[in-house]
Amino acid sequence: MLRDHITDLIAFAAVARERSFTRAAGQLGVSQSALSHTIRSLEEKLGMRLLTRTTRSVSTTPAGERMLKTLVPNLEQIEAELRGLAEMRDTPAGTIRLTAPDFAVEGLLWPKLMPVVRAYPDVKLEIIVDYNLTDIASEQFDAGVRYGDRVSEGMVARRIGPDVRLLCVATPAYWEARGRPQVPQDLMEHNCINVRLPSHGGLYAWEFEKDGRELRIHTPGQLVFNAIGPMIAATLDGIGPSFMPDFHVADHLASGRLEAVLEGWSQPFGGLHLFYPSRRHASPAFKLLIEALRYRD
Asked: Is the model's pTM score more than 0.70?
């Protein structure tokens, strides 16, 4: 059987190519005596001499030369296939499943992952938009995205974004018509646009802090969404104020379409993190994703 002879055949090919037991032994990382024993054992199994040995040289017999001509191309093909498999192992490929809130996908993940998708066609991304505190292991996700203070214990957490401030924003026209709040409690007189988050057990209470004083305001309003996108659309339409991450409305603030109020009550906190179970051998595709998302000051 081939499996009983493959090591012996590799040893024979090395000696025949090198025409030296000494050089072949060094190449194979075995002793010269062990190599000599291997060749003798192979010749005994085949019932014929494969090598002619003298004190000065080693050469193949006619049978050995025939075997060498057949053996070497096949060994080279096997080595080439093994190299190809190694290259495949080291080439980013495969599917990576992520779970993240929509504002993180639109405002942070996609701009950084788009170049990866374009440059590595064998890397496939599945991104599930979810506000739940998903158990990524049981749900078979490779990683998730959360704010730093909500990462589960025992997970590896890598920062992928700067510190965040939650801002109360509305159109300048809305503030002109309804008045700009001076303290968070003034929002009780406004038509606020709220968000329902499973991770908070219902409607999200707007959180403010100033000089060590913390306030949680359950704001009134006509509209409730469970995603940031439609909240921004309704805010831009002048329906009322909303409360959302600064990076998600930065362009609208810069253009003047939205205006922030109560900024003195909006304190920065730990930004978004990529979290995942500790793994000893991460795939090249996953390492690529970690590097692409890494936060750079």
From this structure: no
